[in-house]
Amino acid sequence: MDSQRKLKLNLKRTFLIGFAFFGILLLWQVYDSWCPTFLTDIFARRMYDLSSAELKLADPGKILNVQWIVGIIMACDNLAALILLPIFGNLSDKAKTPIGKRMPFILTGTLVSAVAFPFIPLFFHANNVAGMIAIMVIVLIFMMMYRNPAVALMPDITPKPLRAKANGIINVMGYFGGAMATVLGIFLKLSDYINVPDADRKLWIIEIPFIIASVLMVISAFVLFFTVKENKLAEELKDDMELGERMAAIETPVNDDAPMSKANKRMLLAILGAEFLWFMADNAIGTYIGNYVIYYLNSASSATMILTIVGGVASVLGFAIAGTIADKIGRKWTISGGLVITVASMAVMCFVTPTGNAVGEHGEFSFPALLFAVWAIKGFGMALVHNCSFPMVVELCSNKKIGKFTGYYYAASMSAQTITPVLLGLVFRVTSAWNTLPIYAVVLFLVSFVVFTLLVKNIKAKKVENSHGLEALDGE
Q1: How far apart are CA 348 and CA 339, in angstroms?
Q2: Neighbour tally for 198: CB within 10 Å
Q3: pLDDT per residue over 26-80, tens digit each?
Q4: Vertex 257 angle, CA 256 and 258, to 5°
Q5: Can you list the domains of the chain with their CATH numbers?
Q6: Whole-number percent of the chain with pLDDT over 70
Q7: Are 420 and 283 in contact (CB under 8 A)?
Q8: Sign of the alpha-carbon dihedral angle for 79, 437, 43, 145
Q9: Contacts of 427 (CB under 8 A, 6+ apart)
Q10: For the range 117-121, what are the long-range contacts, defined as Cβ-Cβ under 8 Å and sequence gap of 24 or more?
């Protein structure tokens, strides 16, 4: 009967699941764009009794001395995530409630995070470092409760051969969330707050993005809750999920009653190892790009937001076509190609230099235009990587362990994001050079390419029963 059946991706349902990613990327875009600069400013005051703007004018090199502390704080967040993500993933695998196994975690995590999030800029504005970091920890814990189950929801109700295409759609939804935060950053410039005397600092400039992010995240969670009925869908899709299991792109079939096969275990460890390295590189760029723009390129913070939009548009294109590319050449070579493209873009970034006329100049016109091209190429390349890597990991488990394997995926990424801010912060301190940022990224992206290409096998899912083209996108 399998040869007479076709698997179809339900476009509408996949789009609705994407609201989970919308909330995740919306909050983290605000968090990653604002918090490292908050920390730089607040620790500049502790170490040198000057605001970061005053310190940059007095001694630009000392701004780099602060970055290792910023890195430690950001790494502590990720260390907690490294512990919590697998726990919440495993708990949600085992949960049984009238609203599903993932939804209780999604709703609780969303509501607590959304209430706490706007207090981060409030404590920063009050120059209260303990309060600010405490709220960051609360947000992190409850976002981890939300994040793993929200990510696991897609493979829960999507057959294995269709997950690359589905992952592309929900990532595009996520980038819409990130774009919302980015637009806020263009009009509410963080540099307009940072680079003025304390008496002229306006709290609303930094508070509004956090409030809007919280409101939209709650809306996205409730859209998900009212439109995606986990228990009902699990029953309706039981046959399709079983068929997808038989069509999976794995060396040996998955058997819950037996230990993981050596071949599948080797493949899992190779994917996670390469993922660790490319997240080391990508998170280094994401963590420090805001400070790189303000303190090295002497440009307005809005330039960082425009970079994010450019990269996001290119990423949407990458996510839109990654599943189709993977169907033709396999997920391995799609990821390897994405890494080559990313390495090339970061290599170009190594030659970017400030274009401003003087230290302290903050204007979009002092921003090097070449960086926009770099960000577009990087965004496209990393979209190919991210689109196919998560489906490769959950391909290696049964539907009963998706939360657990999602935890493995995030354990690799979060351990990388725990180490890399501290490590790069120390590199900055030793070299006193901002241009070590792209060099650091190039090396790690290159090593991840070598590890992934040499150790991961290219196994295509069976396609004979798969629908193709528009027929594969069931819009009902």
Answers
A1: 14
A2: 11
A3: 888 888 888 888 988 888 888 888 887 787 777 777 777 787 788 788 777 777 7
A4: 95
A5: 11-461 (1.20.1250.20)
A6: 90
A7: yes
A8: negative
A9: 436, 440
A10: 117/27, 117/30, 117/210, 117/213, 117/214, 118/207, 118/210, 118/211, 118/214, 120/31, 120/34, 120/35, 120/38, 120/210, 121/34, 121/38, 121/203, 121/206, 121/207, 121/210
The dihedral built from the CA positions of residue 8, 11, 13 and 17, taken in this order, carries a sign that is positive
Alpha carbons 316 and 61: distance in angstroms, whole number: 37
> How distant is the alpha carbon of residue 446 from its chain centre?
20
- Over residues 287-293, the mean pLDDT reads 85
Q: Are 12 and 475 in contact (CB under 8 A)?
A: yes
pTM to 2 decimals? Answer: 0.70
What is the average pLDDT across 145-155?
84
- Are the C-beta atoms of residues 402 and 155 closer than 8 Å to each other? yes
Tally Cβ neighbours within 10 Å of residue 46. 11
Q: Of 1-5, 45-49, 197-201, 346-350, which one has max mean pLDDT?
A: 346-350
147: left (phi over 0), alpha (psi -120 to 50) or beta: alpha
Going through 344-457 in order, the beta strands assigned E by DSSP cover none
CA torsion, ordered 173, 179, 181, 183, to nearest 10 deg: -150
What DSSP letter does each residue of 49-82 carry, written as one string? SS-HHHHHHH-HHHHHHHHHHHHHHHHHHHHHHH
Single out the residue of 83, 91, 101 nearest to residue 155, CA to CA.
Answer: 101
Nearest to residue 396, comparing CAs of 276, 255, 274, 279?
A: 255
- Average pLDDT value for the chain: 82
Query: CA-to-CA distance for 40 and 50, rounded, in angstroms?
Result: 11
Amino acid at 408: Y
